[in-house]
Write a structure and sequence with these properties.
The chain is an alpha/beta fold. Helices cover 38% and strands 16% of the residues. It has a domain of 213 residues: Alpha/Beta hydrolase fold, catalytic domain (Rossmann fold, 3-Layer(aba) Sandwich), CATH 3.40.50.1820.
């Protein structure tokens, strides 16, 4: 396996750090990963190794305000304005780069948590650019909830400024996630049942930080865009799409993944599959059953892309 990192210039000239994992031969498909909030792409190295063993490649960029990309920006902050569309366009730029280096190779989007929301917005605008999508640790809730949360975020922006970091928003979002896992060992028990993985997250200076008020506004406005059925209906109805998550993930509580899959089907998507893992929490690829999850994802890739060599993924 070959791993390297490079800087990709976004459409607005912003630099994005991209991690790339390749095998020795041409990949069956390239996975394009959009990671979650307050984490970064290098955390997917283990998943990348399994993909490469199965004949695939993985490209994953550090989103704006995250990972090493934040070294040339502001940690936890997309942009002064237009941040939501910028992170969508970043995926399009990465897709174009992949297509230049792997012409005629299928590209599959993988979006986790925040990255799954960005991924859905990307699919609404440009689903013809990919041949499949996996949405992990995602969510689906009423528009009214997002509107109310956005009002709070706008108040906090008025009170603290766009780059302020609100303890109230933190409490109302991540602060509530650990309640189901009392007594808590850490503030991040909700991520995984594996204490070693939780400790790695806590020890990583590029994980677990508080995002800015403006990023929250961008995200919540984006969630309002991807929720209506009429917008989801803009996604290619024949696109293979897999929704996965943990039964005990407080972001989705399992049920909201069912709601997301149902919303996509109502929107006309004909190839939506849903897989919920009993007992699992938010980060499936860092969970105690991560090998099972990885094999399942590689098996799904084989089925929808027409190749079935999955036994080497474990």
């Amino acid at each position: 396996m070959r791993h390297d990192a490079f800087w990709l210039t976004a459409s607005d000239a912003a630099p994005l750090l991209v991690n790339r994992w390749l095998g020795d031969s041409a990949p069956r498909a390239v996975l394009m990963l959009s990671h979650g909030m307050a984490e970064h792409s290098a955390r997917y190295a283990r998943f990348a190794e399994a993909l490469v063993r199965a004949g695939y490649a993985l490209y994953a960029h550090d989103q704006r305000g995250h990972g090493k990309t934040a070294q040339r920006g502001v940690l936890g902050h997309y942009a002064v304005q237009g941040g939501w569309q910028r992170v969508i366009d970043d995926l399009a730029n990465l897709n174009q780069h992949i297509r230049q280096h792997h012409p005629d190779t299928p590209i599959v989007l993988v979006g986790h948590s925040m990255g799954s929301y960005i991924g859905q917005a990307y699919l609404i605008q440009r689903s013809a650019e990919v041949q499949g999508a996996i949405l992990s640790g995602s969510n689906y809730q009423p528009l009214g909830l997002y509107r109310a949360a956005a009002a709070i975020a706008r108040f906090e922006r008025w009170r603290q400024g766009p780059t302020g970091r609100s303890a109230l928003i933190e409490f109302l979002s991540f602060g509530s996630f650990n309640k189901a896992f009392k007594p808590n060992r850490t503030a991040f028990d909700w991520l995984s049942r594996d204490p070693d993985e939780v400790d790695k997250y806590i020890a990583d200076p590029l994980c677990g930080f508080r995002c800015t008020n403006q990023l929250w506004i961008d995200l919540l406005e984006g969630l309002q865009q991807i929720t209506p059925t009429a917008n989801l209906a803009k996604i290619d109805h024949d696109l293979p799409l897999l929704v996965v998550g943990g039964e005990r993930d407080p972001v989705s509580q399992g049920k909201r993944l069912e709601d997301l899959a149902a919303a996509l089907r109502r929107a006309g998507l004909r190839r939506v599959e849903l897989k919920i893992y009993p007992g699992a929490r938010h980060e499936l690829l860092n969970e105690t059953n991560r090998d099972e999850v990885t094999v399942d994802l590689v098996d799904w890739l084989g089925r929808v892309l027409g190749n079935r060599a999955t036994e080497s993924a474990a």
